[in-house]
Amino acid sequence: MAGYAIISLGGKQYRVREGERILVDRVATEEGKTFQPEVLMLGGDGAFELAPKGSPVTAKVVGSQLGEKIRIGKYKAKKGYRRHTGYRSKLTQIEITSIGGKTAAAAQPKTETAAKKPAAAAKKPAASTTKKAES
Questions:
Q1: Cα separation of 49 and 18, whole Å?
Q2: Looking at the domain assignment, is residue 128 inside a domain?
Q3: DSSP for residue 108
Q4: What is the pLDDT of residues 77-105, one digit of tens each?
Q5: Can you tell me the distance from the alpha carbon of 44 to that of 21, in angstroms, rounded to the nearest whole number?
Q6: 28 DSSP 8-state letter
Q7: What was the pLDDT predicted at 92?
Q8: Edge-to-edge strand order for the sheet containing 21-25?
Q9: Contact, 26 vs 11, CB < 8 A?
Q10: Under 8 Å between Cβ of 95 and 7
């Protein structure tokens, strides 16, 4: 059902599809690494649902770049006051690799350590009966 997702990054919301590349504000993840952004909503096929906690959307950092140069000018008439400044936004290009897929933690089978713990607990009651016999 998940044809698109609405994610939140850097205080902004983006509508993304699987395989899409977008420019977002600088993300503190290294190039080539993957991360999971906060998912607000999943939608597709004319319907949508609020994203359950831990909804899997995986994004990969492709690279970083500078945004378009913004020029700012201040001016006051008849006073000779003129100031110019500007800046370039630091951006990160990300690629959405999967929407609605299984997470790595959910795909792993349960380990056998949970099955071994009850067996160890069965041995302990035998040691406590010897103390009662001495009293």
A1: 17
A2: no
A3: S
A4: 999 999 999 999 999 999 999 987 654 44
A5: 19
A6: S
A7: 95
A8: 21-25, 81-99, 57-76, 34-35
A9: no
A10: no
pTM above 0.85, yes or no: no
Would 121 be classed as within a structural domain?
Answer: no
User: How many domains does the chain contain in total?
Assistant: 1
Segments forming the whole domain that contains residue 83:
4-104
Separation CA 69–CA 84 (nearest Å): 13
Query: Would residue 124 count as lying in a domain?
Result: no
- Tell me, rounded to whole angstroms, the distance of Cα 44 from its chain centroid: 20
Asked whether residue 122 is domain-assigned, the answer is: no
Tokens for 76?
Answer: 């006051």
Residue 121 backbone class (left: φ over 0; alpha: ψ -120 to 50; beta: rest): alpha
Distances (CA, A) of 32 to 24, 81, 97, 126: 16, 47, 12, 56
Q: Which tens digits make up the pLDDT trace of 1-45?
A: 568 999 999 899 999 999 999 999 999 999 999 999 999 998 888
Can you tell me which residue has the tokens 């290009």? 93
